[in-house]
Amino acid sequence: MKSILSCLWFISIVITASAQEVSVKYGGDEVAVNQVFTITLTIENERLKNYSPFPEIDGFLKRGTSSSTSTSFINGKMTSSQSIIQNYQPTKEGTFNIPDFTIAVNGKNYEVQGTTVTVGPAAQRSQRNNSDAFDPFDFFNRRRQPSQQQEFVDVQAEAFLALTTDKKEVYVGEGFTTTLAFYVAESNRADMRFYELGKQITEIVKQIKPENCWEENFNIDNINGQPVTLNGKPYTQYKIFQAAYYPLNEEPIEFESVGLKLIKYKVAKNPSFFGRNRQEDFETFYSKPKTVEVVPLPPHPLRESVSVGTFDLTENISNKALKTGESFNYQFKVRGIGNISSVEAPRIPEDGQFDFYEPNIQQDVRRAQNLVSGTKAFNFYGIPNEPGTYNLGDYMQWIYFDPDKEQYDTLRSELVVNVSGESRKNEYISSSDLGSFYDQIQYEENALASVSGDELMKYLTNALIIVVLVILTVFRRNEIRDGFAQFVESNNIQIVKALALLIGIHVVINSALLVLPFDVELLQFFLMILMAVATIIVLGRLLFRSKRYIVAGDMFFYNFISIFIATLINGLITGSMTQYDWSNTFIFTFIGHLLFAFILIQIHALGHFFVRQGYSKWDAIIPFKNLYILCKITDKHFITELLLAFIPIVNIYYTYLLFSKVCQLQKIDDKHAIFATIFPFVAQSKIFYDNKENYARIYKFGYGK
């Protein structure tokens, strides 16, 4: 009897967090060797996403887990709980101590107080005594006589299931929102719980969804109560399903009645302390049928293809002053409330004045506050063919039907562009017209002549080049000979070949991108990043293989030369293929690429320094970790350096101290630490790369092998 009663006693530890209530319960403090001891983890009003393993207990073996969930409605409020039960099987008799342990629930740690468990002999099944002697505790084991059976009564639920729509009549293509919700009055006294809700919702959605509609589902993940007032009476609304529907034809939308089954408890007519006071039962709540009428759109040539809703237009163009043959980008963005997925691109008339290519499309659909809204952007790539002033509204028009105004409307571009240059229609005729040549042939000499018009400049330039070469050859012949020998011996020719190959690859890929029929600026940007990274990696390896050290000057010089040549060649090719005056943007493109390369060189230099100090070069890429490694190398405190970085003036001083320590390790003048602090993009690379006067002192490792 003692072992049986002890199984009914629980030691409970309740831990309350900021957003969830977690409890851990032990089974009885006494258990028979042939019984199971349990630890139960329960979380209320929150979904149990993850938890750490239960503890190992000396003298017990884990024998699997079980779980349970419950959801109830009490006084119009929903409460839920989820439990995980860990079973333990005793291996021997004795008294065992369960020490304090920590368990993680949904990413938060909870401390659980330990307890003591006594394992006794195996429990025997008790035999019923047939004696008529009176036992004062026998009422626990006796069966109730029919006259003594408890009677349960049903409590009327003040709740209902409703399917509602925000519109009773819509046009073809016009959206309306359908909501299925369960409403519980605040005065409700019936104890109810959802029953297999996920399975029921799947079947309900199949019944609700009309066949002749496009659906935009709101995807309700969590069912939370929302206070509402209906006919002056307060309720709690639990949205079960919500979607927007867009009729595809004129057939009326009919929603049949759907049912939601809930667990509903009957209560004991005469409650007792020891007996059952409630009995589980089921009740199904049904919604009323609903019909939404659909009316046709007014007559219009595009009635079968227009979108229906409330929309407006935002537009953007890369340049309003255009030249014939030069490309431009234009964005036509439709924004509003309606079926965004069905919005089609504007139909552009073909009159030969512009060439427009198929647009890139970007779509953003938002489902919130019982509405479906969003944007759909059409990004056009165009080329003007004829000079003149043009209203883009003559080309970019989008017709739709506005159900609020009950009329068709048009979104039309308001931009005006000016196109200059020669007509492209006459380009072929002008290039093939040889009349002027034959008209002048009888007056011209038949001697060969250069196509260049400025003969004097050509002669002066060639003469200057020859003079410079002669001076260098005569007066600096020894230096030239020695320098060339050193150039060959140090494998610099290999570096030049590698850079030439990288430049060639860059130019070929960039030229191939120019023929694509859409905007390739993003692709060109990524190509520039890849080539810059490849150039720095190849340079670093070749320089180290040839010299066994790397200095910042070599990296800056070779990158400067390769970026200048690649930018120049790409500009010439771009100009020849697109008639684009690349000379206007050459210097900005070159400087932009060069600055980006300097940033990459700084990262590469830091990685090279890390390798010299015995760390991975990849640590230089990872934010915060690179600072941690640098502080570790220079014997600085990482947290202190990180906090001081946010204090003006002070951060400059401590940065100098950090770089000063690096200069000591590199055995270079401390003045470089000052430059590295003031000019980080250039001078930091100087202190992180090798000092060629001291490189032989260290540094034998496997870089570049």
In brief:
The protein has 705 residues and is of the alpha+beta class.
Task: Describe this entry's structure for a reader.
It is a single chain. The chain has 705 residues and is α+β, with helices and mostly antiparallel strands. It is 31% helix and 32% strand. It is built from 15 helices and 32 strands. Strands 23, 25, 26, 27, 28, 30 and 31 form a 7-stranded mixed beta sheet that branches. A 5-stranded antiparallel beta sheet has the order 1-2-4-6-5, with no helix packed on it. Strands 12, 14, 16, 17 and 18 form a 5-stranded antiparallel beta sheet that branches. A hairpin with a 4-residue loop joins strand 1 and strand 2. Helix 8 crosses helix 10. The longest helix is centred in the last third of the chain and has 27 residues. The radius of gyration is 41 Å and the shape is flat. The N terminus and C terminus are likely disordered.
Keywords:
seven-stranded mixed beta sheet; disordered C terminus; alpha+beta; 32 strands; 705 residues; five-stranded antiparallel beta sheet; 31% helix
Q: How can the largest sheet be summarized?
A: 7 strands, mixed
Query: What percentage of residues falls in helices of 4 or more residues?
Result: 25-40%
Shape: flat
Beta fraction:
25-35%
Q: What's the helix count? A: 15
Low-confidence stretches: 1-19, 126-147, 482-490, 694-705
Radius of gyration from the alpha-carbon trace, in angstroms = 41 Å
DSSP, total strands: 32
The average pLDDT is 76
Structural class: alpha+beta
What is the subunit arrangement here?
single chain
What is the CA-CA span between the terminal residues?
79 Å
